[in-house]
Design goal:
338 residues, alpha+beta, Uridine Diphospho-n-acetylenolpyruvylglucosamine Reductase, domain 2, Uridine Diphospho-n-acetylenolpyruvylglucosamine Reductase, domain 3, Uridine Diphospho-n-acetylenolpyruvylglucosamine Reductase, domain 1, 3 domains, six-stranded antiparallel sheet, 28% strand, globular
Length: 338
């Protein structure tokens, strides 16, 4: 059996019954069909998952297919079709060097292209759903390839149709529509505007924006580094809660709040954690709240999955007691609960 800690950014997780490495579409489908009706777990970069110390009783399929197709039009921009196993940030970097704009605020997010639509990844005022035109998948139930339009993906905050139907659809490739240009759209995220030294609503160069985002993420311990245990995390462990206006009004004025178009309000999970009695550097066993950012739960070197789950539970319980809000894990929990 293969220890899955070797394939996750948290560096925890017990053995899998079997693990299959695939690098193209035919190998992906063959591995899925070969697993039959037994449980399968799809991983790419292993950056958004917490796997139990007991491991996974089934087949782990690790996707590393790298394919890029592009169609460029001076008026409509670029349509890029990217294989599910492509490293997300490498892809983002190549779009910028090729003169495309749109994905710069999503720089530095760990993981693969195939995971991006499932989680509808987002940062600094943008979500990947803004740029996706279609997602090709393999449907395990019908044993056929199924293509989803953007609308059929049912994207919402850190959610999608694929996430709502776990284990059924395996992403094969994703198509993106990007514009050609050297400038961003107006920057709407205050922290990023300050970093760029511009006014909120101003534009910046795409390359400057990427550099600023990478620096912001590094300062928060959100860029993976083999040497820095404080970055051995799964990124933001919890999503920002979306609550009613009444519940938001009950929070202190200092709590960051972002009104949504449906009348609800998104609030900062990091602020809730920090103001509930949880502190940077808090530890349980080998698990530690990052010394840089409270949303990152890290492996200080000898953590178990149970340690990390216990620390996550402590943070969630503190927020629930202090503010009556239940945090929801953004990280996929495999064989473990918090």
């Amino acid at each position: 059996m293969t220890d899955l800690s070797n394939y996750t950014s948290l560096r925890v997780g017990g053995p899998a019954t079997s693990i299959v490495h695939v690098s193209n579409e035919s190998e992906i489908i063959s591995a899925i069909e070969g697993a039959g009706d037994s449980p399968i777990l799809i991983i790419g970069g292993g950056t958004n998952v917490l796997i139990a110390d007991a491991g996974f009783a089934g087949t782990v399929i690790r996707i590393a297919n790298n394919s890029v197709e592009s169609e460029i039009d001076a008026c409509s921009g670029a349509t890029l079709t990217i294989g599910a196993g492509e490293n997300w940030d490498i892809f983002v970097s190549t779009t910028i060097t090729r003169g495309f704009a749109g994905l710069e605020t999503l720089s530095g997010i760990p993981g693969t292209v195939g995971a991006a639509p499932i989680q509808n990844i987002g940062a600094y005022g943008h979500e990947v759903s803004e740029f996706i035109t279609r997602v090709r998948t393999y449907d395990r139930e019908s044993k056929a390839i199924k293509t989803f339009t953007n609308a059929e993906c049912e994207f919402s905050y850190r959610n999608s149709y694929f996430k709502a139907h776990p284990s059924r659809y395996v992403v094969l490739d994703v198509a993106f529509q990007l514009r050609i240009g050297e400038k961003t759209t107006p920057i709407t995220y205050l922290e990023l505007a300050k970093k760029l030294d511009i006014e909120l609503g101003d534009k910046a160069s795409v390359s400057d924006c990427r550099a600023a985002v990478l620096e912001l993420r590094a300062n928060k311990g959100m860029l993976l580094s083999p040497e820095d245990h404080d970055s051995w995390s799964a990124g933001s462990f919890f999503t920002n809660p979306i609550i009613s206006q009444q519940a938001a009004d009950a929070l202190p004025n200092a709590a960051p709040k972002w009104p949504l178009t449906d009348g609800r309000v998104k609030v900062s999970a990091a602020w809730l954690i920090e103001n509930s009695g949880i502190h940077k550097g808090d530890e349980i066993g080998g698990a530690r709240i990052s010394t840089k950012h409270v949303l990152a739960l890290t492996n200080s070197g000898l953590a178990t999955a149970s340690d990390i789950a216990a620390l996550a539970k402590r943070a969630r319980d503190h927020v629930q007691k202090a503010f009556g809000i239940t945090l929801v894990a953004e990280v996929n929990l495999i064989g473990i609960e918090i």
